Amino acid sequence: MKECKSGRVITKKRKGTEYFFLRLNLVDSESDNTQKKYTTKDIATNLMVSKRNQSKANAMLEDAITEYSANAERMYYHNYLKRWLETKQPSLEITTYEGYEYRLRIVINYFTEHKVLLTALKPEHIRDFYNYLLTVEHGTGKRHSVGYSNRSVKDIAILVRASLEDAVTLKYIADSPAAKIKTPHRNTDIQKKAYIGSDDVTIFLDAISGHRLETAFLLALYYGLRREEILGLKWNAIHEDGKLYIEHTVSRVKSTIAKDRTKTDTSQRNYPIPDRIRDELSKIRDRQSENRKLFGNRYIDSDYVFTWEDGHCYSPDYLTKSFKKIVRNDARLDDSLTLHSLRASCVSILIHSGTDIKDVQVWVGHKDVQTTLNIYARTNEKQQNKVANRMADTLFSI
Q: How many C-beta atoms lie closer than 10 Å to residue 140's C-beta?
């Protein structure tokens, strides 16, 4: 972790105007004593150079030196978190880092307001923060809601625990105040997740018919593909053996990132291609050939299957929002269906058709068979209701 040994106020020109900057002299506290790594870090103050702003810049320098001080007694938890995130960045993929950054911003904002020193942090501070996550209003407009979801609270709690475990390792604190605090959850947040059963397939296929993403949604249901796997499909994924290989993904937090690998090793899999899907893919390829001629040099030859007319890849959010719009506009579909529901639907349809659970696990690329079983248990309610109705008809009609 970087520690500040000294610093000074400097000036830099930005678009023709001089501004004050803070230049910190940092040393890597975790490097070997004989090979200390020294670096400098310039921090913008957004203060234009003037006598009036000089004192403000000096005060900001003192705060910055304190923030990067190796003295844990003077370090606030929110400042420690900023530094902790910096140390993690080099080892994280950009989408993972952006996810960390988004979640930790919530933690940092809370503890910036409460100003708790790292060494003074107690279990009750962590407990109060978790409870705050369940009740705080956040977002605006359609995104406005009260409290974060159970999944979000769990993800944030994982980062809080990890940051404090590292603080123990660095001997900033003796014990982690988060170690024995259970992550809370709201019972009201638990809701039945919708899925498409065997009886609903015809309705679903009719609902997506003619949409520009019809084939993408069809693949999601047939193969149980994740969103990033659908977008990551390239034409070279169709090998000479006539199979479709899942080996590339496109995902996004703030940046859209293409990866030449999948989520896990078990996510790398291959499938036979039925005639219906082969025909749909051929139509897409023909349209891309026409667009390539139409756009000429402006065409982006990315080799992706699902693209806009000029060849650039769809945003992951576009798939999600397009699917939700289809669901909202069709009264026959459960309005709580999501794009990811198609993956669970694939599992349900396969198991109810008699497919072995291990074969289903391999088909959808689950790392653990328990994940497959959990989805089956969640989607089995409709089948149980059918059995109950049959029993009622048999017993009570006598």
A: 7
pLDDT value at position 247? Answer: 77
77-170 shares its CATH topology with 198-386: no
The neighbouring-strand residues paired with 117 are 76
CATH number attached to the domain at 198-386: 1.10.443.10
Contacts of 1 (CB under 8 A, 6+ apart): 28, 29, 30, 83, 84, 87, 170
DSSP for 321-339 reads: HHHHHHHHH-TTS-TT--T
Domain residues of the chain, as ranges? 2-73, 77-170, 198-386
Kindly report, residue by residue over 163-181, the tens digit of the pLDDT: 999 999 988 899 999 999 9
Alpha helices in 250-340 (DSSP H): 275-295, 316-329
Residue 6 pairs in a beta bridge with: 25
**Closest alpha carbon to 159 in 103, 118, 90, 95:** 103
Q: 2.60.40, 1.10.150, 1.20.1070, 2.60.120: which CATH number matches 77-170?
A: 1.10.150
Over residues 134-138, mean pLDDT: 85
pLDDT at 190: 43
